Amino acid sequence: MQAFTTLNGLVAPMDRANVDTDAIIPKQFLKSIKRTGYGPFLFDEWRYEDHGEPEMDCTHRPKRNDFVLNQPRFQGAEILITRENFGCGSSREHAPWAILDYGFSCVIAPSFADIFYNNCFKNGILPIVLNDSQMDTLFDACATTEGFSLNIDLIAQTVSLPSGKSLSFEVDDFRKHCLLNGLDDIGLTLTQSDNIRNYEQSRIKQAPWLF
Amino acid sequence: MAKTLFEKVWDQHVVSENDDGSMLLYIDRQLVHEVTSPQAFEGLRMAGRKPWRINASVATPDHNVPTNNRDQGITDPVSRAQVEALDANCAEFGITEFALDDIRQGVVHVMGPEQGLILPGMTVVCGDSHTSTHGAFGAIAMGIGTSEVEHVLASQCLIQKKPKTMRIRVEGTLPTSMTGKDVALYIIGEIGTAGGTGFAIEFAGSAVRALSMEGRMSLCNMTIEAGARCGMIGVDDVTIAYVKGRPYAPKANDWDSAKAAWSELHSDADAEFDKELLFKAEDIAPQLSWGTSPEMVLPITASIPNPSDAKDDVQQEGWNRALAYMDLKAGTPLQEINIDKVFIGSCTNGRIEDFREAAAMVKGKSVAANVKLAMAVPGSGLVKQQAEEEGLDEIFRQAGFEWRDPGCSMCLAMNADRLEPGERCASTSNRNFEGRQGMGGRTHLVSPAMAAAAAIAGHFVDIRDWV
Ligand code: SF4
């Protein structure tokens, strides 16, 4: 996994609440057995006029002009700002894979759906929770400033605006540690193999029907 | 100290605790399907890892499988590749799979309980958000992503933080014809799709206890639509009677000791929850979703709401967007909404009781002329077999329904079963997001009896006064 430490990136706004995983990556793309290649299909139904299918070449597909990520000024954005309950719906990890493959490595929202939030950390994406008024500040600044970018510092846990204003955010120590170091948490868990075996030994005595 | 049901099961599964309060939680059962597992198996292979405990996982293909002409195999090459990848991965790693030609194949969340793979007090995971279904057995059952599927395969553990606890009690007697599905939709309508975020919910109260296991599974299934980590219900005689005698259920001496252990699986009388909610069963009328989020729900007697009545700007914008997408006007009575297709099935409502309730509504009647397709899709091969033994398939066919083979089908339209743009569907599934049942398709979530009655009438009806 790619480590995440700091990021100075262009911001794209998605000013709607409850963006669900079906919208992030529609189900036909879940048929792939790979982890990569989902970026061109991120928000497929909102982004293109036609119906997308896996493995399609997207370069010449007709784009919807009114969709925010299609606007020239947001090309190359690496940070997505959005509203409450982002990533609700299914557990599909294809959603963070598509977000990452598109080029976003940080999503900022007032709240996230649990499974999506968790899936982000497993894939080197930093999901940041800010409160509604902080979000309003970011949306306003983004709307009025061409090329609006943010500086994210995971070590210091801060989001800094070009104005110099800095907002701090919370993140679990363990998740932060893994993300900063790009650590695979399976490897970490397996360092506890003895503990897992001991647990199984005692559990099998209490509840043999589980084994 | 008094404990909640959730705490009892959780505490029995903690392997170790990290400094930051996260815990290594032991997982008793993992269900596996073709969509969220290929990259997990690939990860194991790449790292040279083996499954930690092979018999803890059981697989079946469901999301992508065709629901008719199975003898011709899977014609869509992309779907076929995914199902074949599951077959090959299960064979390579030694995991039990109920493949496409096995009578036990079905939607994972129907297959698991039916086989007795889900037992009270277990921790259960699956790379699918509707894993919450299994909380109906007094289990902690959570949907996870593919990286975690790999994590559980490799270590039989998950890294988790303990969620907060919420108890939702529904007290009283449900009016006739009200099902677990109506209770689920009603609660989500009340608390919203983020109402359960960060919580493990326990459903309790006399109306919940009066539900069958099927009804309890429908209710827990939709906990995820309320944003909760999991939903669960305490163990009682109904739970134990359902589990008894199932192929993977404990036998002989094990059964007696299991039963004794399971009798503890309920919240202690003075256990404390972080949040408590109370609803009256008598308030629950047949529910119908009108918009593009499961919280946009109303009783069948209501009319489409007016966005100017929304509680804030965010909700108003959501309602406007939903009305445009659903092509509905504020003030229209729900009973005047005509439908094009009907889907009865899914992990919410694809069990035998669901088909019995739906069949009772359509018996001796015919699907309305404006309904282009009405499908009944059993949740598993065994549900299909049981329904056929009871003659339900004939009732559906005579009414003009198609009787299909088991799978997720039009719940998420990954196979050929889908809505065309603009089509409107009465669906017993759990999600009404834009495009969920096919690009541009419009979904109304209802109970099986409501969907069946709508198929006959051609529009939604109040089943309480409908004959
Ligand atoms: S039936 Fe629908 S909700 Fe259930 S597992 Fe299948 S796709 Fe998911």
Cα distance, first to last residue of chain A? 33 Å
- The class by helix and strand makeup of chain A works out as alpha/beta
Percentage of residues in helical conformation of chain A: 25-40%
Q: DSSP helix count of chain A?
A: 8
Q: What's the overall average pLDDT of chain A, rounded?
A: 94
Show unreliable segments of chain A.
Answer: none
How many structural domains does the protein architecture of chain A include?
1
Write the layout of secondary structure elements.
The complex is a heterodimer of chains A (211) and B (467).
Chain A: E1 6-14, H1 21-24, H2 44-47, E2 79-82, H3 94-102, E3 106-109, H4 114-121, E4 126-129, H5 132-144, E5 149-153, E6 158-160, E7 166-168, H6 173-181, H7 185-190, H8 193-206
Parallel strand pairs in A: 1-2, 2-3, 3-4
Antiparallel strand pairs in A: 1-5, 5-6, 6-7
Chain B: H1 5-11, E1 14-17, E2 23-26, E3 29-32, H2 38-47, E4 57-59, H3 77-93, E5 96-97, H4 108-114, E6 123-126, E7 140-143, H5 146-155, E8 157-160, E9 164-171, H6 180-191, E10 199-204, H7 206-209, H8 213-221, E11 230-232, H9 237-243, H10 252-262, E12 275-280, E13 287-289, E14 297-299, H11 313-326, E15 341-344, H12 346-349, H13 352-362, E16 373-376, H14 381-389, H15 392-399, E17 402-403, E18 424-427, E19 442-445, H16 448-457
Parallel strand pairs in B: 3-4, 3-6, 4-5, 6-7, 9-10, 9-12, 10-11, 15-16, 15-18, 16-17, 18-19
Antiparallel strand pairs in B: 1-2, 2-8, 13-14
Helix pairs in contact in B: 2-5, 6-8, 13-15, 13-16
Residues 62-63, 107, 109, 128, 130, 346-347, 408, 411-412, 429-430 of chain B line the site of iron/sulfur cluster.
